[in-house]
Amino acid sequence: MWFGFPLRPEQASTIAQGIDHLYYFLTAMDLFFTGIIFLTIFYFAIRYRRRKKDETPAQIEGSLPLEVAWTAIPLVLVVVTFVWSSSLFIRNARPPTAATEVFVIGKQWMWQLQHPEGVREIDELHVPLGRPIKLTMTSEDVIHDFFIPAFRVKKDVVPGQYSTLWFQATKPGSYHFFCGQYCGVSHALMRGEVIVMQPQDYERWLSGSKKAGTMADAGARLYEQYACITCHGTGKGPPFVNLYGSQVKLQDGSTVVADDAYLRESILVPSAKIVAGYEPIMPTFKGQLSEEQILQILAYIKSLGAAERKAGQE
Amino acid sequence: MSTTAVAPTTGVNYLNAQYGIRSWLLTTDHKRIALLYLGSVTFFFLIGGAAAVLMRLHLIEPQGALLEPATYNKMFSMHGIIMVFFFLIPSIPAVMGNFLVPMMVGARDLAFPRLNLLSWYVYIVGGLFTLYAVVAGGVDTGWTFYTPLSTTYANGNVMAAALGVFITGFSSILTGLNFVVTIHKMRAPGLTWFRLPLFLWAIYATSIIMILGTPVLAITLLLVALERTFHVGIFDPALGGDPILFQHLFWFYSHPAVYIMILPSMGVVSELVTCFSRKRIFGYSFVAFSSVAIAVISFLVWGHHMFVSGQSVYAGLVFSALSFAVAIPSAIKVFNWTATLYKGSVSYQAPMLYALGFIGLFTMGGLTGLFLASLATDIHLHDTYFVIAHFHYIMVGGALMGYLGGLHFWWPKMTGRLYPDGWARFSALVIFIGFNLTFFPQYILGYLGMPRRYAVYPEEFQVLNVMSSAGASILAVGYLIPLVYFIWSIRYGPPAGPNPWGAKGLEWETPSPPPTENFEEVPVVEEEAYAYGEKEAHVV
Question: In this structure, what are the phi and psi dihedrals at residue A178, rounded to the nearest 5 degrees?
Answer without folding.
Answer: -125, 155
